[in-house]
Amino acid sequence: MQKLVVKGKKKLSGVIKISGSKNATLPILAATILNKNKIEINGVPIVRDVITMVQLLKNIGSNIKFDLKKRKIFIHNKNRKLKTIAPYKLLKTMRAGVIVLGPLLSKFKKAKVSLPGGCAIGSRPVDIHLYVLKKLGAKIEIKNGYIHAQAKKGLVGKKIRLPSISVGATENAIIAASFAKGTTLLSNCASEPEVRDLTNFLKKMGIKIKWSTNRKIKILGNQNLKSTTHKVMFDRIEAGTFIIAGALIGKKLKISGIETQILKKEISVLKRMGVKFQISKNDITILGSKNIKPVSIKTEPYPGFPTDLQAQIMVLMTKANGISKIKENIFEKRFMHVPELNRMGAKIKILGDSSFVYGPKQLNGAEVMATDLRASVSLVLAGLSAEKTTIINRVYHLDRGYEKLENKLRKCNANIFRRN
Predict the structure, then answer these.
(1) What per-residue confidence (pLDDT) applies to 238?
(2) Do 313 and 277 touch, CB atoms closer than 8 A?
(3) Crossing angle for the helix pair 236-249 and 310-317, nearest 10 degrees?
(4) Apex CA 236: angle with CA 262 and CA 40, to 5°?
(5) What's the rounded Cα separation, in Å, for the pair 216 and 160?
(6) Fold match between 3-19+234-419 and 22-231?
(7) Average pLDDT, integer, range 125-146
(8) Which residues share a beta bridge with 231?
(9) E strands along 263-320, which residues?
(10) Got the DSSP string for 231-257?
């Protein structure tokens, strides 16, 4: 099993180009199930979750090719008969795999999809996904670890309010409604930029979709779709991760290939912490930041502070002069990195859904264990700022969502390498 070895205290400087978004690519790939015409997707990140989704689409019969060198995916399913079963062996490592349920059911009127796996950060049930699909006319039962869904007469558009805001359920609902008969009105939707990227892609295929507010969407179903080309948006979580790295241990670190407007909340929190920036439309330069200040934040659906950056900003909080607080509102088990950070010399206490970070603390290298995707990268950040050497086990979590992380860091003076 591979490990990452990080030798800390090396100041970061240079330029990091941000990859395409994993969280935007996955639902876009799922939506291609609806279309038999040519599709080209550009700017695709080469990460484990995307490769797994490509394998899943191949497994059900999609004519899909991934040009790794050009970061392009080509799909052409004319005269292809797709299977309607998504097996456990491909969904066990990837929570987002359940996103194929909506398009398979909508197009083929039936689907058998394994209950998903992914990060161990709480139950993350699929009940909201199933609730929406039932409202659209599906009959669903769960048996032997699989979701069995059918809609013999096809899905029919409805007025649906999601019981709570869920990115995955919103995406499944949008894709399913795109091929359903009639009009669907969705409310209480997730409005993350990745969801909007999905709707932009579906519009290019010929679906009429209109956001009436941040949380309301009107979808006119259409089964006569057309060829399209789409470029995936930048990965805002990768961008946020490297911005925090620059705040932690940067000398002059430039993050390029982004839309800073999308990162308004993250930038505002870091400004409150005393981080110095030079900001333009498509890049941000982090200058050497001293005298980090404590803050109190809570994770929320977009445009709030993202749960996917909670573990990373916690590492920066260990440098703050005072007590910082994070209230985790999205997942109930997303403090699994805390014991590992404490082993490195942090002083962090968990009380219910909140963590209290006492600083400033000098972190020290140690052998640690990654428990999930974002926890693993928080340990990399901790290792970059720690005295001596940090060894991070289970880096396969990291490879699910970060493209060549150590290569990007090495180009900016970090002492980080992988070993078996």
Answers:
(1) 98
(2) no
(3) 10
(4) 100
(5) 10
(6) yes
(7) 92
(8) 42
(9) 277-279, 283-287, 296-298
(10) EPPB-HHHHHHHHHHHHHHEEEEEEES
**Torsions phi, psi for 120 (to 5 deg):** -85, 65
Tell me the CA distances in angstroms from 112 to 33, 139, 169, one per residue in order. Answer: 15, 12, 17
What is d(CA 178, CA 141) in angstroms, rounded to the nearest whole number?
Answer: 23
pLDDT at 122 over 50: no
Distance in Å from the first CA to the final CA of the chain:
6
- Residue 13 and residue 251 in contact, taking contact as beta carbons nearer than 8 Å: yes
**Cβ-count burial of 261 within 10 angstroms (0-12 exposed, 13-18 middle, 19+ buried)?**
exposed
Q: How far apart (Å, rounded) are the C-alpha atoms in residues 239 and 256?
A: 8
Q: For residue 280, which phi and psi values (nearest 5 degrees)? A: -130, -175
Please say if 412 is a catalytic residue: no
CATH architecture of 22-231: Alpha-beta prism (3.65)
Residue 114 and residue 88 in contact, taking contact as beta carbons nearer than 8 Å: yes
Instruction: Count CA atoms within 13 Å of residue 24 on its CB side.
Output: 29
Q: Which one of the listed residues 64, 119, 202, 414 is annotated catalytic?
A: 119
Length of the chain, please? 420
pTM, full prediction: 0.95
Parse the chain into domains and list their residue ranges.
3-19+234-419, 22-231
Contacts of 268 (CB under 8 A, 6+ apart): none
Strand 389-393 to 354-359 pairing: unpaired
What CATH number was assigned to the domain covering residues 3-19+234-419?
3.65.10.10
Q: By percentage, how much of the chain surpasses pLDDT 70?
A: 98
For residue 153, which amino acid is it? K
